[in-house]
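Teaching soon. Invent one.


***
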Amino acid sequence: MKKIDIEYDYIIVGAGSAGCVLANRLSKNPKNHVLLIEAGREDKSITLKMPAAVLSNLKSTKYNWAFKGEPEPELNGRQLQHDRGKALGGSSTINGMVFIRGNALDYEGWRQMGCEGWGYADVLPYFKKMETYSGGGDDFRGESGPLKVHRSTAKDPLSQAFIKAGKEAGYKETNDISGFCQEGFGIFERTVFKGERWSTSRGYLDPVRDRKNLTIITNALVCELILENNTAKGVIFKNNKDKMTAIKARKEVILSAGAVGSPHILMLSGIGPKDHLESFGIKLKADLPGVGQNLQDHPDFMLKYKCLKPVTLGPKTKALNSIGAGIQWLLTKEGMCASNHFDVVACVRSGPGVEYPDLQFCISPIAMDDNTWQPMKEHAFQVHVGLMRTHSYGKIELRSSNPADPPHILVNYLKDKRDRELMRKGIHLVRELLDQPSFLELKGDEIFPGDNCKSDSDLDAKLNSHTTSQWHLSCTARMGVETDKHAVVDNSGRVHGFTGLRVVDASIMPFVTNGNTNAPTIMIAEKISDTILDVKPLSRIELQTWQSPNYQTHQR
């Protein structure tokens, strides 16, 4: 490890999906001395490279913050686990490797909220810049970026039945959910390359580790920002032996600690809701009431079915089979362990009058036991219902003034009755889908919630007991104009009222995007890195995307 200096041009806090991007781009100029600080470890474990090892990584706290949420009022007081990466690559090192950009109208919504420069034409060039797409480059897709994006083959019987059933039910088929048309049934993409996970650490950090002007520190928890006269001057961090160190920044401190970590550090440093901070004896530096507020996530619910044909993976996960699959992967990087087993997806609208998809369905050729997180040993599969745009918002608040104490996380899942109604609609739509001819020889009994669970009250009871998270926490330091009292940063990630201080990660999203959040987070970092470097933004790409011409009157 390089010797740690007492001063750098840029200090990046958090080596996750955004931080690795920033470290790469800012250190490209050899005159910029860059420090990247990560609270977690190196990402060298073999399990972090194996795509099928997702669940084992999530069960461990070695590479996972595994935050325990507050009792959720609408979910029977259950405390959900919020998984966030604790290693180089952050959550891109432990996530499900799903790649989806979101819908073009997400970004038009950001722009309409006052975030100029964040419309779809503005962000598309950065989505292209960041990726090497296995399907090849075109108007929408990139072909030479650091992030490897692999398009699934989706040849298994359940995936093929899913796509066919969508067409039978009257939905559109789309050939690229991150291109011209998101709406419909299509192939999932994943951040996997040659059978291995391709995190931002692999794609952005590993190729530049030898740069003399880039220093990477792991096992270092940032406790506080050094602030003088509303200017960020540096950070104070402690290592795993509790030794405290102060490092100064000549130009900027950039928080990329994620939707939990970034607002946590801001509040510990005196930036946040006045009354809340003062209740913990923290000296107020700026009353920014939006810090930690506006928390959003995608709620998830799983329907589980017996499978009438031996085409699922449950029986293949028995001990001897798993060992054999692991050996095959180690030798060839192929087989069952080389996939995340999310091959197909549906992005659909919940009803007429909905402008663009607000529900996401995906099928998995394995059903998990909710209590043990172990695969069911019988042939079974599950279908996920995810709500992409919620009406319920939560918050992140301090637990104490001690940086080692994790913050309170309350998402308020299904607090708004409209979210509950939309989840019920999603369940009904999945059941309709699986009643199509293509599933006739595959779908057995509904294991959960069960064929008899049909009324609103019965479905609500199951939603209360089994709704979980898709682990897409975001929006807790959202972008917006300075006159918006709930906005935390401007359109370049600069914290309102401060110089030399930015937030660049999923926390600055004005609202959560339509789909998994890893790809948009990387895009955000790519875009703002140009701003930091005072580089002219990439030229806007004005392209028409597909929107249902009859969305006002038809659901499909």
Notes: The longest helix spans residues 417-434. The chain has 13 helices and 26 strands.
